[in-house]
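User: Can you recover a sequence for this backbone? Please restate the input before giving your answer.

Assistant: Of course. Working from this structure:
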């Protein structure tokens, strides 16, 4: 029994020594694995997400999409131009009834002026309707569409003012006491037209490249680089054009400009040339650059569309009988 107890005690001691050795070896191996990085282990710093720039928070955002506006305006402008055709036919019949064929008296000259104004209105509105339909068919909103719409809009305003001016010419024949009222109506129509053209300047800044790096480079090359600058330019240009038309209206009541066939011809050519040139420039402005780098509204485009239209309106007001 004594011998068996000694034997069991030796076995227990050996087991304890073996367990202690295995524990020590396991601790050493675990320490070495912790110190040696593996192929799949990355430093803790690289696992942190990159800091993102804090987005600018605005309560409301939005801008005017000229494509939708052009889609709605195109049929209205086309119908406006088509309605001038029967009026032109009626005026030709009236001219033959009220004057001797082949002579150009006082009555026939005014009817000639009304017909010329309506013909320009018809051509300008129909051409503008086609151009507006093309803008409305654009698949993407690009920065060049705002100046294109402003250029095409000149033809629409020319058609509107010419139609109102033709009413004034007819009123001077059949309702002489109301002719000054129709002059004021034509001036107000011109003011509204130029004002709506100028409003497009305020939204010309809104369409920008989505990439932040490209956006900063693109914005540096544009005329209007912020919303504040666009709105300020809008109100300045609109106010100056309203004052210009109002000044021409005031001068018309003090100046006594005789109506002649040459002046009627010059006025007709100026209106037709202005509408045709601006509509053609607007259609060309819808072209897309192969590089994808589109230019937004330029300074000369904003000034030419508004002040060019206002000067023509002023000439019409001064020459009205």
């Amino acid at each position: 029994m004594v011998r068996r107890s000694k034997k069991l005690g030796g076995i227990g001691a050996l087991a304890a020594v073996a367990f202690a050795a295995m524990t020590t070896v396991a601790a050493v191996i675990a320490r070495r694995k912790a110190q040696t990085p593996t192929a799949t282990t990355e430093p803790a710093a690289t696992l942190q997400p990159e800091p993102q720039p804090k987005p600018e928070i605005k309560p409301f955002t939005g801008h005017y999409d000229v494509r939708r506006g052009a889609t709605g305006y195109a049929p209205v402008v086309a119908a406006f131009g088509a309605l001038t055709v029967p009026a032109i036919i009626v005026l030709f019949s009236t001219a033959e009834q009220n004057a001797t064929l082949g002579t150009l008296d006082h009555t026939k000259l005014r009817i000639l002026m009304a017909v010329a104004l309506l013909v320009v209105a018809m051509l300008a509105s129909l051409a503008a309707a086609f151009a507006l339909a093309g803008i409305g068919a654009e698949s993407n909103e690009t920065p060049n569409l705002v100046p294109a719409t402003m250029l095409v809009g000149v033809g629409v305003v020319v058609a509107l003012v010419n139609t109102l001016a033709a009413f004034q010419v007819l009123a001077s024949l059949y309702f002489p006491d109301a002719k000054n009222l129709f002059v004021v109506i034509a001036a107000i129509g011109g003011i509204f037209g130029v004002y709506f053209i100028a409003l497009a300047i305020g939204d010309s800044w809104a369409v920008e490249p989505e990439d932040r790096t490209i956006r900063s480079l693109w914005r540096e090359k544009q005329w209007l680089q912020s919303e504040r600058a666009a709105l300020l330019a809008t109100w300045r240009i609109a106010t100056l054009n309203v004052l210009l038309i109002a000044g021409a209206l005031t001068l018309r009541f003090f100046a006594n400009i005789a109506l002649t066939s040459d002046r009627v011809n010059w006025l007709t050519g100026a209106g037709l040339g202005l509408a045709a040139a601006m509509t053609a420039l607007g259609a060309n402005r819808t072209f897309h650059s192969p590089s994808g780098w589109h230019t937004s509204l330029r300074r000369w485009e904003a000034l030419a569309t508004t002040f060019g239209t206002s000067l023509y309106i002023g000439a019409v007001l001064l020459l009205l009988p």
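That completes the design. The mean pLDDT is 80.
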